[in-house]
Amino acid sequence: MMIKCALQDLLANAVRLYPQNIAIDEPGHGTVTYAELAQLSDRVRDRLCFIGVEPGDRIGIYMRKSIDAIAAVFGILKTGAAYVPVDPNAPAARNAYILNNCAVRAAIVEKRFELRLQEELGKLGPPPSLLLLDRTGAGEPLRATLDLEDSLRHAPTVETTTADPDELAYILYTSGSTGRPKGVMLSHLNAVSFVNWCSEVFEPTDKDCFSSHAPLHFDLSILDLYVSLKHGARLVLIGEEASKEPLRLAPLIAEKRISIWYSAPSILSLLAQYGGLERHDYSALRLVLFAGEVFPIKHLRLLKSLLPKPRYFNLYGPTETNVCTSYEIPKDIPEDRTVPFPIGETCSHLQSVVLDENGSGVPVGQEGELCIRGSGVMQGYWNLPEHSARSFHAESGGKSWYKTGDLVVEDQEGNYIFVGRRDRMVKRRGYRVELGEIEAGLYRHPNIKEAAVIAVANEEAGVQIKAILSYREGKRASVIELKRFCAENLPLYMVPDLFHFLESLPKTSTDKIDYQKLLEIK
Amino acid sequence: MQEIKSTVKSYILKEFLFGENPDELTDSTPLITGGILDSIATLKLVAFIEERYSVTLQAHEADVEHLNTIGDITNLILSKKSS
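^ inputs. structure came back:
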């Protein structure tokens, strides 16, 4: 597929075709049209260029998902730089690590995060320049900051940079097994080839209304943001609070007439169980897309019985490839089906193989690791050349395949079925969690001598995270204290559900922690 | 009031603080900001309260302002029951 287009060109095209369409609706705050979004992001571009941002730089985004944040995204892209969104709810130390790790030239930050961020950045070296917003909402605070800066020193208008397809567009940090998040580097080509695949399969129009449920640091946001904007559709930003509360979310989806929904399955399960969906009108909804983890059949069946009209798609793929396989859920789910649906067939812009541990292909019906190549596959991890090299399988002839770490089996119909993981990464509520990162977080506690973290499958709650700990001399910390400690040091979705205490952890003959034994502890 | 407190407390201990010494959980222990109740745990707690006390919580009441401590939760239930 020949792609010359950069992400900022998608917005430019839409502005030409649909200047007065509403581009973004931020419930409770306001809306912007395509023309307004283009104008505001132009001003961000001008300001960033004025302070010295150049193509190839990285710029951080540290704020609530809002019209301000989306305008910042496009402003950054228009300078030819890549954006690096961080989780505003994660600890400041983790976010400072990320911004420092990829050496951002500048960051656009909400003021309420400034103090802690500066403190943490100060420990790491000379801090980047920060463009500060009083708050966020409908683009007003961003506009106010730009007005203020302009009144001090006017930023002249500059041209939008057209990025080369292989230039970085954004870096998304995911959980790292060594305790430090790692930055997945994605280019314009990576994103645009995926966006084009979505156009083919989902056929959006400017009459569609997309949900934006995922936060910007989560790769689901790529579909929401760029597929909707490419087609002149409307994007409804779902705030942090409503996004987790089925009783608020259910009426919002109906009132906003959302036609294309995309999220992790966990919130869809909650909507089906607690959302009171039968009380609202969902006649506009035509597509329900989900990705990020396995959707338990019981809840999917309930959801489909409450919302029978839309088509449902199971999308699969790690951040490193974005969606790489898809499967349309059949109209009727047989009553006796208890196993989850397949992850499906490879998307048309990618190719796949299933390899065994030696890198040889396995026959249909046998388990192996799903490996992907093509225009959607990341360039590597930021500043981790060895780790990047290890994550690809190089074939003679120069082909190299990204190893997803996911074990699959291909069925007779040519669909992949997800079997499990090769390593210690788990999916929890759509978030990717390296158990090693939680262990590293626990080891920062002064009284903890040994920490091991495992995932336990639970029929009702899905995946639960269990920490097994041993203590140094002295008082044992309470579960409450440990949860608080974790909440201060890790993103909330990584806080273990269960804690278990032992005198010392079981070891293998080579004196490593014996995870098999830990799994047997009830 | 004491009955509500101890019922809510034992529910939280049983569901979300498995293995914890009950004395550690007080009326003012921060539950949501302290990482004990995440969003799904909060929903389960709300469902439990609604069923046990035959009250209905509004969406805006299922938040950190109303549910962050056993004290807050008890006050919320009491205000619901008396209205």
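DSSP finds four helices and no strands in chain B. The two ends of chain B are 16 Å apart (CA to CA).
thumbs up if we can close this ticket
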